[in-house]
Specification:
Elements (H helix, E strand, L loop, with lengths): L5 E4 L9 H5 L5 E3 L4 E3 L11 H5 L5 E4 L20
Antiparallel strand pairs: 1-4, 2-3
The structure holds iron/sulfur cluster (2 copies).
The site of one iron/sulfur cluster (SF4) has 14 residues, from helix 1.
């Protein structure tokens, strides 16, 4: 749980596929009218890149991401994020 790390959607890139909403097991997203909405940033797991890794449009970055690979597992349990 961290407010220091949460996804930010680049709405210009997002193709509204809904994959991130379906993928995240932590209730961070809700499907909005068209684009996903980050409704629960506190639920995002610091260091997890799961939704970014499955986004087909490279539309997801993270507040708090300094570009460094997190050491070890983020422990999110999502899979697909390389931990
Ligand atoms: S980074 Fe992980 S925990 Fe955070 S919104 Fe994406 S899939 Fe969910
Ligand atoms: S996975 Fe990427 S393209 Fe698909 S809805 Fe989410 S941000 Fe948009």
């Amino acid at each position: 749980m961290s407010k220091n790390w949460y996804p930010v959607i680049n709405e210009d890139n997002c193709i509204e596929c809904g994959s991130c909403v379906n993928y995240c097991k932590h209730g961070v997203y809700e499907k909005g009218q068209d684009k996903p909405v980050v409704v629960n940033p506190e639920g995002c797991i610091e260091g997890c890149h799961g939704c970014q890794s499955i986004c087909p449009a490279e539309a997801i970055t993270y507040f708090g991401d300094n570009g460094e690979k997190p050491s070890g597992s983020c422990g999110c349990g999502c899979g697909g994020c390389g931990c």
